[in-house]
Amino acid sequence: MKRLFTFWMTLLAVQALAQDRIWLDNGNPVQAKLSRAMDSKLEWIASDGIARVYHRKRFLVVFGSAGQFMVISELNESPNKAQSQIEAFYKAPPRNVTQDIIVKSVPLTVIAGNISYESDDVINYLTSEGNAASINKEEVATVIYRDGRHEILRDVVDVAPLLALAHKEIEKKEREIVRKEQEKPQSQPVAKKDVPPPPKEPVKPVLTDAEYKEYSAKGIRRVDEFTSYLRIIGDKTQKSEEKNKAVQQALSLFEPQATVAVSSGKGVKKYPVKEYLNRLKLLPYAKINITWNEVKYVSELKQEADGNYYGIIAGQQVFEGYSANGKVAYGDITRKNIRVKLESYQKTIEGKDTVNWEVLLGNIGVETNEGQ
């Protein structure tokens, strides 16, 4: 497998240090500051001290060292007014917030919280109310950390307009964070003898070697189950009740927020699993046949900080849509990958707590597509 998640090729993930950065239309950030606004151009000075002049359209978004940002589309067309905006941006008081800001792309949402863990796939955080939450990085456009760093997780050409739309909401969230911090009652000093010991970290259940093999195989079987339900859902000879039952059974295999990526001539589009299955029922074929070949783990199950195990299964999906005369009307071969989650839960048997594991499928992504 030369490359995992080829559909991420259009995404750009760059975690910048807490310093002044300018993002250009070529997708690259440079350590620099804007210095002067002209009619249709902007002057900027990079870390080498050399002043350069580019057309305005080359610039997308500017981040300050404290995490404050300015989208170039927000600059006034008047050079004098734009110059005032630039000067005000760099003279603004330091951004002083105690929470991280996560900008979700669809639907556009601004989330404030304290990030506790990050991997290539997921961000775990505590909400402003102190509740544990998690978000898949595929859904995130930008993260602005409390220490001033920032991270662009998609093509910055797409992220810049989202930041422009979310700018006021981000500023509002940050004002709320500061206000709540100021309103917190000052805690009284506690005598050392009254300080309780730190809580013990809960022990994470760990798979034995035998369990690891068993549940790894179960992940592959989950893919086979899902494929069998797809055939029922797309078969026009099946009764509606049977199709609806198959939809519910297929949904039970997945995490609630999972999506399915579908490739077409217009690119790759993602659907919630339920919507994908309902669309499958409406395809204009008398019958469909979906098979998976070369199904295997390309990223073995690995335990992460939340105690759950995660892995990636990939395979070659063969889709065939049959017309009423029994001939193939359309067929394609698509490389797909499925995120697998192994989640622990406790079950009481005869008064004794035992650890059990549930295998759930996550997002299904497209790797390559070869039309027939």
Question: Which strand-content bin applies to the residues?
Answer: 35-45%
β-strand number: 19
User: How many distinct helices?
Assistant: 5
Give the uncertain stretches in residue-range form: 1-16, 368-372
Could you give the order of the helices and strands? EEEEEEEHEEEEEEHHHEEHEEEE
Query: What structural category do the secondary elements indicate?
Result: alpha+beta
Radius of gyration: 25 Å
Biggest sheet layout: 7 strands, antiparallel
| N-C termini distance | 22 Å
Form type: globular
Please state the average pLDDT score: 85
The amount of helix comes to 10-25%
Strand order of the largest sheet: 1-13-12-8-9-10-11
Describe the structure.
Residues 1-18 form the signal peptide. Keywords: Signal. The longest helix has 28 residues, at 156-183. Helix 3 (209-233) packs antiparallel against helix 4 (240-251). The chain is 23% helix and 41% strand. It has helices at residues 79-91, 156-183, 209-233, 240-251, 273-281, and strands at 14-16, 21-24, 29-37, 41-46, 51-55, 59-63, 69-71, 100-104, 109-118, 122-127, 132-136, 140-144, 150-152, 259-264, 267-272, 287-303, 309-322, 328-349, 352-371. The model is unreliable at 1-16 and 368-372 (pLDDT under 50). The strands form 4 sheets. The protein has a 7-stranded antiparallel sheet with strand order 1-13-12-8-9-10-11. Strands 5-4-3-2-6-7 form a 6-stranded antiparallel sheet. The chain contains 5 helices and 19 strands. The chain has 372 residues and is α+β, with helices and mostly antiparallel strands. Strand 2 and strand 3 (29-37) form a beta hairpin.
